[in-house]
Design goal:
The complex is a heterodimer of chains A (about 300) and B (about 250).
Chain A lengths: L7 E12 L2 E7 L2 E3 L3 E6 L5 H8 L7 E6 L2 E2 L4 H6 L1 E4 L10 H9 L7 H11 L12 H14 L4 E5 L7 H15 L5 E6 L2 H7 L2 E6 L2 E7 H7 L1 E6 L10 E7 L2 E6 L3 H10 L4 E6 L2 H16 L1
Parallel strand pairs in A: 4-9, 4-10, 7-8, 8-9
Antiparallel strand pairs in A: 1-2, 1-3, 1-5, 5-6, 10-11, 12-14, 12-15, 13-14
Chain B lengths: L1 H29 L4 E2 L8 H24 L3 H6 L3 H4 L6 H32 L3 E2 L8 H28 L3 H26 L3 H4 L20 H25 L5
Parallel strand pairs in B: 1-2
Helix pairs in contact in B: 1-2, 1-5, 2-5, 2-6, 5-6, 5-9, 6-7, 6-9
Classes of the chains: A alpha/beta (about 300), B mainly alpha (about 250).
């Protein structure tokens, strides 16, 4: 399949990765549209990094497929990596300074741009004469990102890019992702457990836990669909099928629904219940609700 | 690009190799002509030079071991694997790029040793028996045996760094393997004598074993060829391991 044939920048189907008896990734099927800022969110150890490793051919799946820009990430590794930028918190060559890293990395990429290097060195204020090992954590991440952006990738994959960064650097980094990368129609795929940051920039979200996909949807969709509905008293009405959770406490009943909130509110009111409020939920709340449902299903 | 990194990693080894030669040159320049090669002996120049080069072989051993430990296995152990292996290259590129560079460097060093020797003879810094000269084949075989020797050390060390995730452990184990094999070689020699060359061949091929003749050792090409095959096998094994290795990201 050529990249033109695929509308998806990244696609995994029934991806499985096992380490001894642990399923790090367990039947994961992701669909990342082109041009999206897609955030793969989950707890530590939920399989985010393992998924990224398989996308980058750093680990081989036990089953399933991983495709990037329509190409198999293993069989067409070289072509894929010509068009994919990667940002990690792993070290680069500690003894190299920024200029040496730029010279080293530039030779690998036909679309390498020294103008972009100059631009991001200025934007991020990266000390290019300092050895990588002597840079602060924030500057190390900026260096990774600068190197990835200068290769003009179609897809930018970031593994926990904001972990351990201060708010100023985090803001700088997110701003570049939105204003420079996504605005040019490039795809950003990032893993994170900082949900407030994800909520700020992502337009697609995949939630993963224990290697399984809990939910995948556009951010706008999530915001529109998930509602917390509070009803006075104990509503006699049965929870709708799309209810994620029902919690009854003395004076009220709280429903969390993932679909059809308006219809449910109408039905409640028609049944005589007093709906106290129907409020949207933030990503963090949605994530926690999805996790709790997953936990209950397991029990 | 990657070759410049290889050179950067190799500079120290080249320095270690060059320092004794430079010191030797310095000593000879202070007392030119005091050293007389083959004084009172009718030993062939090839025989003598092979001995000289086998001393240099200790330096080549170090270079082979050091370069073997500085390849992609070392980078992965240093946690740079996620960066390197997400560049648009097949994993085998790194193995053969490392090896190509290292063998070229070892060849340069081995031939440089011969030319260094010729230079100091030419400058009369050392004296040789009148009329003594090297046969053209010596210019090929003596450095080649040095490169093959260093190449075997390189191959063993390179494979160890690929098999063992911890860098220092890999280097120590490669030394243990080299020593263990050498020990077995000498043990086997006591039992099998000349047959040892087939079952436990030595690291080093002596191309000119005859003290009073410039004749080449029998089957020298076969012996060198067998070792070259062993080197290629070691590197293919390293490639096989690397292509299946999981890298942290």
């Amino acid at each position: 399949m050529t990249d033109l044939a695929s509308e998806l920048a990244i696609e995994t189907r029934e991806l499985v990765k096992r380490y001894r008896n642990v399923d790090a990734v367990n039947g994961l099927s992701l669909s990342v549209p082109r041009g999206a800022i897609y955030a793969l969110v989950g707890r530590n150890g939920s399989g985010k990094t393992t998924t990224i490793r398989m996308l980058l051919d750093l680990a081989r799946p036990d089953a399933g497929t991983a495709r990037v820009l329509g190409m198999d990430s293993h069989a067409e590794h070289v072509t894929v990596m010509e068009r994919v930028g990667f940002v990690s918190d792993r070290p680069l060559f500690g003894g190299y300074n920024g200029e040496q890293l730029v010279r080293f990395n530039g030779g690998f990429y036909p679309r390498w741009s020294d103008e972009l290097v100059a631009r991001y060195v200025r934007v991020f204020d990266i000390p290019m004469k300092q050895k990588f090992r002597n840079l602060s954590r924030g500057n190390q991440t900026k260096m990774w990102l600068m190197l990835a952006l200068a290769q003009q990738p179609d897809v930018l994959i970031l593994d926990e890019p904001t972990a351990g960064l201060d708010p100023v650097v985090t803001d700088q980094l997110l701003r570049v992702l939105v204003e420079d990368v996504a605005s040019e129609g490039r795809t950003v795929f990032m893993s994170s457990h900082h949900l407030s940051e994800v909520e700020r920039i992502a337009d697609w979200v995949g939630m993963i836990d224990q290697g399984r996909l809990l939910l995948e949807a556009p951010m706008e969709d999530l915001r529109a669909r998930f509602r917390r509905i509070q009803v006075a008293g104990v509503a006699a009405m049965a929870a709708p099928a799309a209810a994620v959770r029902v919690r009854r406490s003395g004076a009220s009943t709280e429903y969390v629904v993932r679909d059809g909130a308006e219809e449910f509110v109408d039905a409640l009111e028609r049944g005589g219940a007093t709906v106290l409020q129907s409020s949207p939920m933030n990503l963090s709340e949605i994530f926690l609700e999805c996790l709790s449902v997953e936990g209950k299903e397991k029990e | 690009m990657y070759l410049s990194k290889s050179w950067r990693d190799a500079r120290l080894s080249v320095g270690v190799f060059a320092v004794p030669l430079v010191l030797e040159l310095y000593g000879l320049l202070r007392h030119p002509g005091d050293v007389f090669i083959a004084n009172g002996s009718r030993a062939s120049m090839e025989y003598l030079l092979t001995r000289v080069v086998s001393i240099t072989g200790i330096l080549l051993l170090f270079v082979g071991w050091s370069l073997g430990g500085d390849g992609i296995g070392h980078d992965i152990a240093e946690d740079n694997g996620a960066f390197l292996l997400t560049r648009p290259r097949r994993r085998r590129f790194f193995v053969w790029s490392d090896s190509g560079f290292s063998f070229a460097l070892m060849a340069v060093l081995a031939w440089a040793t011969i030319f260094f020797f010729q230079l100091i003879v030419y400058l009369h810094l050392i004296r040789t028996r009148d009329g003594a000269s090297l046969s053209p084949l010596a210019y090929l075989l003596i450095p080649l045996s040095g490169v093959v020797f260093a190449g075997l050390i390189y191959g063993v060390t390179y494979l160890c760094t690929m098999l063992i995730p911890r860098d220092k452990t890999a280097r120590v184990i490669s030394v243990a393997v080299l020593i263990a094999y050498t020990y077995l070689h000498f043990k086997a020699f006591r039992v099998w004598g000349g047959l040892t060359r087939y079952f436990f061949p030595s690291w080093w091929v002596d191309p000119f074993p005859y003290q009073y003749s410039s004749a080449v050792a029998p089957h020298v090409w076969l012996e060198l060829g067998a070792r070259v095959i062993a080197i290629v096998a070691l590197l293919l094994a390293a490639q096989f391991v690397l292509e299946r290795r999981e890298i942290r990201a």
